[in-house]
Structures are given as structure tokens and as C-alpha cells.
Amino acid sequence: MALKADESVKLFLSIGLDEKTATTTINNPKVTANLTAVIHEAGVTDGCDRTTGNLLYTVATKHHSNLLLHRPTLFSYIVSSKIKTPAQLDAAVSFFDNHAAEDFKLDEFEEACGVGVEVSVEDIEKAAGEVFEENKKTISEQRYRTNVGQLLGHVRKSLPWADPKIVKDVIDRKMYELLGERTAADNEKPTKKKEKKEKPAAKAEEKKAAVEATPEPSEEELNPYSIFPQPEQNLMVHTEVFYSDGSVLKCNNKKEVLDKHLKVTGGKVYTRFPPEPNGYLHIGHAKAMFVDFGLAKERGGCCYLRYDDTNPEAEKKEYINHIEEIVNWMGWEPFKITYTSDYFQELYDLAVELIRRGHAYVDHQNAEEIKEYREKKMNSPWRDRPIEESLRLFDEMRRGKIEEGKATLRMKQDMQNDNCNMYDLIAYRIKASETNSISGCRRMRSRPFFGYLICLYGLQFTPHPHAGDKWCIYPSYDFAHCTVDSLENITHSLCTLEFETRRASYYWLLHSLDLYMPYVWEYSRLNITNTVMSKRKLNYIVTNNHVDGWDDPRLLTLAGLRRRGVTPTAINAFVRGMGITRSDGSMIHVSRLEYHIREELNKTAPRTMVVLNPLKVVITNLESDKVMELDAKRWPDAQNDDPSAFYKVPFSRVVYIDQSDFRMKDSKDYYGLAPGKSVLLRYGFPIKCTNVVFADDNETIREIHAEYDPEKKTKPKGVLHWVAESSPGKEPIKVEVRLFEKLFNSENPAELNDDWLTDINPHSKVVVSDAYAVSILKDTAVGDRFQFERLGYFAVDKDSEPGKLVFNRTVTLRDSYGKGGK
């Protein structure tokens, strides 16, 4: 029942809410509708005491959707003050969560909620006294800096049904009795003392103690899927649909419907991952896979890979193949691969049934007219046409006798609703491409009726990648998604928060057709800085060559991340770290993803050496024909008795260091090579610069002369990576290295609206064509990953050819984006 703002405020004040809470509440239409419904159902439209009102407010805002089935019982206990504390309310909600069926034992409910249990002030005094006696020393030391919340918790633990306000008053009084008046020192913030530098042993003990003191992770942190109910609990009311006439539709499964569903599924969890095959999957889909496949795996259930292929014009076989491949690469195994188009006949039959029941009609408004009427909340002129007429017209739509754009099938919902997703959504539309060619007629001779239609009307069915050209009408997402969920006996229909407002139409349709209703839950969309994840925008920058295809390593498509060298393990760890929350609008800094990539590659990528911009160094005190084989570590913690943990690198008269590791002028904070200065070559010897040879311009350094210390008596601070000639006059192997940075300069390019393309970083890809690499890399294969010491993690790119390897930088060794971000 929709009320005016001032009427809503007056109603909310009557149940004891303060003015600030009441006025804040009406700014949220959903909470306003929920609270209004709760007040009417509880029968307190004339007002109630503040304690009762606060509990009802909690029901409306915190526990609204998961106890709708049992609200009459709950409200009677709240209004009669049998449930009068937040703790009792929480216990009641917990009880109903575990008793989804309508039948339960009232005495068990009352016992679980502490109904009839009276906790006297004397009981609270006694419990508080015991807590104070046990913690007296700590309280005396910390005085008013004592964590009072912990003291309250101790008392509430022994007396869970005690009035929290009385408990707080008793605790405050006992604090005063023990400590007296607050002093000025009590109000001062404690100053941090500068600690003396401790010995390593002491630090180790401190670290150990800190680890031991780390609080235990919550159940949700240990198992992010613990928030989802079991299939047998799916009797609860899923949602309420508020109609503009004041009536309310409560949607939940009847017991016989749920029993039939459980018999088919065996009580297992059934989920689905339903991508549209109209583009490549991105990292947001990785979160969806983690939720859908992960829940099914954790509960021993099944997850469909279902292609939501209801738009033949945007879908390609290329995308279908890619999706299946990338799902497997991410480590997920579908229970079964299905297509929405597999159910086109069933969906058509359901649409016919919806018309028969008076819940759908054939409409002749065009797209602009539909938009205008929705904005004005006006009914279509054809909304109330006879059912038989809509059935006939819908059959003509199916048989190709009506042109595209001339008719749609619309659901008869509620055009005056506050939720725009109840504005008579389109259920079916016609998709037919035009042709006047004679060859078009000839191709259809094997189907005389349709060939006749093509020649007569100039229409040809738009071919579907999976269903072929059998259909010229296609169901909309809003019609197909929920019905196929039901047909596949999905237990948990999980999607991102932007679909939350569609929940009403989802359940309206299933209720209108008397179909089984899955449990719907929305989670926050994954948004990451310095990129775009809109399929429309991704498609634009791919097709307009702003990037090098869907698998460009700068994109956060899963194909792009794979090509860049990111592992599925790192992606899944990142997604798991985000949790399955409903907090929307948060932008995750890309550095959090990079952290997980580094964590994974640090354990799995062997070390090796590559010089990006080589500078020749001639070791003048080493014979020209001498080549030494040195041991270099593949892994930093390699044991000396493990030969597989090492590889050989040649050390000869000519070695190459990076140009950035040499300066003509030394400084205190510089650890590279300079005239007269020594550095250590990694896994090799100390060298000292003795001479610099310039090119003819007297500015460009052509080569450096240096002497090495074969006895390794010199102990320089600087350590450089390097590559040497494997034999006199033979250059090291040349490789191409591609250095990638963030694709967009702004953290959120979407905020730039139409100017988002101007934000593309022109330096997001830098190609180094003539880097030098150690010879062990010559036998690598596409996808192999390495840590190039001092440079970062790299992977072999698919553009590699015999004699010309190409490496993509996966991530730097340290966060190059700076600290910060969420």
C-alpha cells in the first residue's frame, strides 16, 4: 500500500521510531514498503510502544526476506511482548531458518527464544559481580579504557535473555563503584612508547605470540558458501510483490511442489552458470563461476553450464567454444552443458499457457511507444484484448506471418507498480532478416510453407547458432531465465545485484505458471580499477583495434589474463578473498589481484635471467677463449644437494648488463655499476669498472671494461642480473619482451561517460625487441612462466616462433600501482 511521504513518517513515528530514523527510512522505497507491510501485518497501525516498534523495524530491515512464511507467528509474539529483546528476535529468526516447513512445535520455538524466561535485576547483578571479580585486576589497570563490550558479552553469555539496557546500566554502575569518577588521565589517548630495537630472538618470540593471538576466522571466512540454505529449506517466502492496488503477492513453494523437486534432485544442490555467448568471459565471470560451480562442489551437488542463447544476432559459435574452454581452464567441470534454446518448445508451450491464464497478451506497440507508455505508467491499448485473439496472434508470430517489430508477447503484470521491472515485460519478440532474393526462395524449397512466406513477405528466419532456423520468435531473458531455472530444478539461482529488482518479475512469472521456485540470491558485482568490464565497451575496443583482440594481455578477460601468464589458481584465490557479499558499489584496486598473482607465481615460476636493454661489458682480465659454467638457482631456497634446482649459465669475457644498471656518476644510494665501483654479478663474480668506451658522438656508451675478482674477496652491496656470450663472438639468444601497464589511466574510466576512450593509456604496451636471455630459455613452450630476476614474472606468448621467443610481463615484482585502494 503506497503512502505519501508525510503519511509514512507519521506511521513510523507511531511505532516509536525517532524522527531521524523515520525520515531516513522514507528515502529508501524498498525499506519503506517493507516496514509499512510489517506494521499492517502486525496490526499496529494505531501505534505501539518503542520496544515493539524497534523489533518490527529490525524485522523489516534485517530479516525481511528469510522469514516471511512465519511472520504471523513472529508478530503475535512481538506485539504481545513474549519476544521483547533483540536476542530473542535473533533466536526466533535462527529457529525459523532451521524450520522451513509451516509445521513446527510451539513449545520448541518458545524454548529456543526464551519465551517466559524472566531475568531479574538481582540475576544480572549477580552475573555482573562474577564477571567483575574475575576481571578485577585488568579493569583496575585499564580503568575506563576497559573494553566494556567484552564485559557485556560475558554477562549476556550466561544470561542470554537479559534486558541489554539493564545489563549496560549495571555494568556502568559497577565500573563507577570500583573506579570512582573519571580523571583527566582516563580521557587521554594512550601514547605509543618508542620501543627499543629488539634482538632477533625476541622478535621471533613476539611474532610467534602474535600469530597465536590471531583470532579464529569466522565460519563464512572458512566457508563462503555457508550463507546459503539447504534445498529442503526452500519453503520460505522468497519475496513479496507489492501491487499498485495495495495487494501483496507472497511467493513460496508449496510443500507438494518442493517434495516433487526434491524427489527429482535427490535433495542435492543444483546451480547453473548461465553466460550469454556474445563475447569473451572476463574476471567478473570468474566470480560467478566461483559462486555457482563452487557452491555445487562444496555441497556435493551439480552445476550446469547453460548458454543463455536467446539473441541469435549477437551470438557466435566462437564464443560458445571459448566459454566451454575457459570454464575448464578455470578448473570447473559442468554437470551438464545445456542451452536455453534446448527448451524453446517448452518455453513456447509455457507462453501459450500464460496467455490462457490471462497473464500475457500480444501487443502491437513499437519500441518507442512501449518506452513512452512505460515512462507514463500507461497500459497498452491492446492489454485487454481477448485471450483467444492473443492465442491466434501468438501462433501467427510463431509461424512467421507477422513482421519483426509489428508484434511482441508481453506479460500482464502491473504498469503502475513502483518497480519498473513489473511494467508488462516482453516475453517474446520476432527476429527475422529481410531478403528479396530469388536464391532465398530456392533455399527454402525443401520447406514449401516457409519458402512461400519468404517470397510473399520478403522474410527469412534469423538463423540461430544452436537451434538453426526452426524459430523466428525468441523468448526474452525475463521470460526464459526463471522458467529454465525451474525446468532444470535449480536449487540456488545466484546472480549479481543489478538483477535484484528483477526478483519480483522472476517470482511473479513462476507463481503465475505454478512452477517450482528456486532460491534467488544476489551478490555484489566485481569491479576492478583501471579497466572496463562492460561487454559493450569490451566489444568496442576489440572490434575497433584499440587492443589486439579479446585475449589482449591488457584486458581483464580470462583469455587475456591467461595469455598474460596469470594462473586460474591465482584468479580463484583473488575471488575467494573478495567473499560472496552484497556490498555493492565498491571498486577493488587492481593491486589486490596482482598480490594473488605474485603469491602464486612466487611458488611456481622458476627463476632465470634476461637483460632488456643490453650494455656490453668486457672482462679484461679473463682470457678471450675461456668460458666458465656457473650454477644459477631456479628457486631461491634451493638445496645444494638437489641438482634439479639449478641450471647452468656461461660466464665469459663478454657479458651484458642492463643499461639502467650503469651510471657515469656514482651516488650514496645507488647500487649499480659506475667508474671505479664494484658490483656482484648474480651467481657469479664481483666486477669493477675500469674504463668506459664511448661511441663517436662521445655521449653514447658503447661498452664498459671491467675486471673480475676470481677469489671473490670483494664484497660489494649491489647485485646485478646479467647474460653472457656462450662462446667467443656468439651473442646470447635474442627475445622479444612485452611490458604491459594498466590499460586506462583513471581508476574508474566508466565515470568519464562518453569520454572513456580518451582515457586509454598510450603507454600500456611497450615492446622490447632485442632483449638478451640465458640459453636455458630457448626450449620453452607457449604458456611457460618464469621470474626474470629483478624484473618481474613473465610468460611465453603465442606469437613466439622458432628462433624468436616472445614473453609477456605478467606482473612486476612489486606493486607498481602504489598503495591504497580497497
TrEMBL record:
<feature type="domain" description="Glutaminyl-tRNA synthetase class Ib non-specific RNA-binding">
    <location>
        <begin position="167"/>
        <end position="246"/>
    </location>
</feature>
<dbReference type="GO" id="GO:0006425">
    <property type="term" value="P:glutaminyl-tRNA aminoacylation"/>
</dbReference>
<keyword id="KW-0648">Protein biosynthesis</keyword>
<dbReference type="InterPro" id="IPR042559">
    <property type="entry name" value="Gln-tRNA-synth_Ib_RNA-bd_N_2"/>
</dbReference>
<dbReference type="Pfam" id="PF20974">
    <property type="entry name" value="tRNA-synt_1c_C2"/>
</dbReference>
<feature type="domain" description="tRNA synthetases class I (E and Q) anti-codon binding">
    <location>
        <begin position="719"/>
        <end position="797"/>
    </location>
</feature>
<dbReference type="InterPro" id="IPR020058">
    <property type="entry name" value="Glu/Gln-tRNA-synth_Ib_cat-dom"/>
</dbReference>
<feature type="domain" description="Glutaminyl-tRNA synthetase class Ib non-specific RNA-binding">
    <location>
        <begin position="7"/>
        <end position="164"/>
    </location>
</feature>
<dbReference type="GO" id="GO:0005524">
    <property type="term" value="F:ATP binding"/>
</dbReference>
<dbReference type="Pfam" id="PF04558">
    <property type="entry name" value="tRNA_synt_1c_R1"/>
</dbReference>
<dbReference type="GO" id="GO:0048608">
    <property type="term" value="P:reproductive structure development"/>
</dbReference>
<dbReference type="InterPro" id="IPR007638">
    <property type="entry name" value="Gln-tRNA-synth_Ib_RNA-bd_2"/>
</dbReference>
<dbReference type="InterPro" id="IPR000924">
    <property type="entry name" value="Glu/Gln-tRNA-synth"/>
</dbReference>
<keyword id="KW-0436">Ligase</keyword>
<dbReference type="InterPro" id="IPR001412">
    <property type="entry name" value="aa-tRNA-synth_I_CS"/>
</dbReference>
<dbReference type="InterPro" id="IPR007639">
    <property type="entry name" value="Gln-tRNA-synth_Ib_RNA-bd_N"/>
</dbReference>
<keyword id="KW-0067">ATP-binding</keyword>
<dbReference type="GO" id="GO:0009791">
    <property type="term" value="P:post-embryonic development"/>
</dbReference>
<feature type="compositionally biased region" description="Basic and acidic residues">
    <location>
        <begin position="197"/>
        <end position="210"/>
    </location>
</feature>
<dbReference type="Pfam" id="PF03950">
    <property type="entry name" value="tRNA-synt_1c_C"/>
</dbReference>
<dbReference type="InterPro" id="IPR020059">
    <property type="entry name" value="Glu/Gln-tRNA-synth_Ib_codon-bd"/>
</dbReference>
<feature type="domain" description="Glutamyl/glutaminyl-tRNA synthetase class Ib anti-codon binding">
    <location>
        <begin position="605"/>
        <end position="709"/>
    </location>
</feature>
<dbReference type="InterPro" id="IPR050132">
    <property type="entry name" value="Gln/Glu-tRNA_Ligase"/>
</dbReference>
<dbReference type="InterPro" id="IPR042558">
    <property type="entry name" value="Gln-tRNA-synth_Ib_RNA-bd_N_1"/>
</dbReference>
<feature type="region of interest" description="Disordered">
    <location>
        <begin position="182"/>
        <end position="225"/>
    </location>
</feature>
<keyword id="KW-0547">Nucleotide-binding</keyword>
<dbReference type="GO" id="GO:0004819">
    <property type="term" value="F:glutamine-tRNA ligase activity"/>
</dbReference>
<keyword id="KW-0030">Aminoacyl-tRNA synthetase</keyword>
<dbReference type="InterPro" id="IPR014729">
    <property type="entry name" value="Rossmann-like_a/b/a_fold"/>
</dbReference>
<dbReference type="Pfam" id="PF00749">
    <property type="entry name" value="tRNA-synt_1c"/>
</dbReference>
<dbReference type="InterPro" id="IPR020056">
    <property type="entry name" value="Rbsml_bL25/Gln-tRNA_synth_N"/>
</dbReference>
<dbReference type="InterPro" id="IPR011035">
    <property type="entry name" value="Ribosomal_bL25/Gln-tRNA_synth"/>
</dbReference>
<comment type="similarity">
    <text>Belongs to the class-I aminoacyl-tRNA synthetase family.</text>
</comment>
<dbReference type="GO" id="GO:0005829">
    <property type="term" value="C:cytosol"/>
</dbReference>
<dbReference type="Pfam" id="PF04557">
    <property type="entry name" value="tRNA_synt_1c_R2"/>
</dbReference>
<protein>
    <recommendedName>
        <fullName>glutamine--tRNA ligase</fullName>
        <ecNumber>6.1.1.18</ecNumber>
    </recommendedName>
</protein>
<dbReference type="InterPro" id="IPR049437">
    <property type="entry name" value="tRNA-synt_1c_C2"/>
</dbReference>
<feature type="domain" description="Glutamyl/glutaminyl-tRNA synthetase class Ib catalytic">
    <location>
        <begin position="268"/>
        <end position="602"/>
    </location>
</feature>
